[in-house]
Protein: Arylsulfatase
Amino acid sequence: MKIFNSHLSLVPFMLLSSCQHQKNDNDTYLPPNIVVILADDMGYGDLSSYGATGFFTPNLDKLAMEGIRFTNFYVSQPVCSASRASLLTGCYSNRIGIKYALGPGSKIGLNPEEETIAEILRERGYKSMAIGKWHLGDDVSFLPMQQGFDDYLGLPYSNDMWPVGYDGKPKEKSKHPELPLIRGNESVKKIRTLDEQAELTSLYTKEAVTFIEKNKKHPFFLYLAHSMPHVPLAVSSKFKGKTKQGVYGDVVMELDWSVGEIIKTLEKLGIRENTLVIFTSDNGPWLSYGNHAGSAGGLREGKLTSFEGGVRVPCIMSWTREIPKGILSNKLASTIDILPTLARITGASLPKKKIDGIDISAIMKGDVDATPRRVLYHYFADNQLEAIRMDDWKLIFPHNYKSYENTEQGNNGYPGIYNSLTTARKLFNLDNDPGERYDVSGLYPEVIDEIERIAQEAREDLGDSRTGDVGKNRREPGRLSPK
Structure:
């Protein structure tokens, strides 16, 4: 396994070329195909290549050996809608007005005026499809086909936003409607039981394979956002009871199977070599659910917090023609960097409005001197700047948060409880303290001063509800007109 960071120089840099493409039947060149696979609530420690125990993820492990595995890869916020908005637009989600997790009937959604990955790739002739969980507004005006995608099949929001209790039985009263499966812009089925949810991973996978086969002679962008392993957990009969980890391990192994089916399809069609496959998660594990939750892999806390367990996620990228095999990268990168990186390797134009992502293609190629990103903001709640990462340092600003530590966890699909805590300003060196346990703020005042200067720039740009800063460059989400 090759490892590179600022101290090691083991992997030679090869210029990323968008000239080397697969050929079609007319002997003309096509740009690389793109497959982005997003798990839901999968923790940093939930793949065997990241240290998972009780189950194996052989297809994802193989993908990592054939490409690059990131150890310092982050989402923009530790919650579903905000995280997905960032991935698709290359923006901090608070820049474009998306926060928290949007519920059924939300009056806001991803503004159709924002340019998504699908829209910038459409200009390069790409066919695109979104499959799985959307969660950026369930009104038809916010759905994928109004955001640049040619087709869509999936759920408009999380699979727990339905009128079913933790026991799997229908509720007599619920604020949620029945869970709709949408094709294109129309609901084609209602998902009413866990048995029906158990077929979602297979359904999404079959649809993904069909899309790839249909577009094998065209450049394509597939965005496959699985509904699992978000609770309620459901797994098909072919994986039920297969792992020592219980149903959570079963679900993750089925997701691994899904990745394997996609890779087999690419290989069968002879397009694997020139297809970039990216696998990551939308945030850390929802630890409140105990044995139905994933693992943060020793990192602190989980989903809904800006500590490492909530925002650091697994990420694997493989493009056998261009990415050297077996790279392990500890360079700082984020889901907001995916859009500009795809623009670089496909020759697509960047969005007209300001974005926050940075091209990380040099890291993908193993350039040991490349450090495109040194700083990452961690916003959460109502536009609150909770932390900033700079190189190996992370400064936590005073804020309230929900803690999973020293609480009673849930069991078998039922949630536990949170502790409501407050943190003071603290400084951590993540190079030797990834668990964020040892505050070294008294030892490095100069580091704090530098990060505080960066924080003030962030507040001027994006605001900070904690300090009362509004921010000069925030944009509105899409809003439904009053009826």
About this structure: The CA atoms of residues 403 and 419 lie 5 Å apart. The longest helix spans residues 247-268. DSSP finds ten helices and 21 strands in the chain.
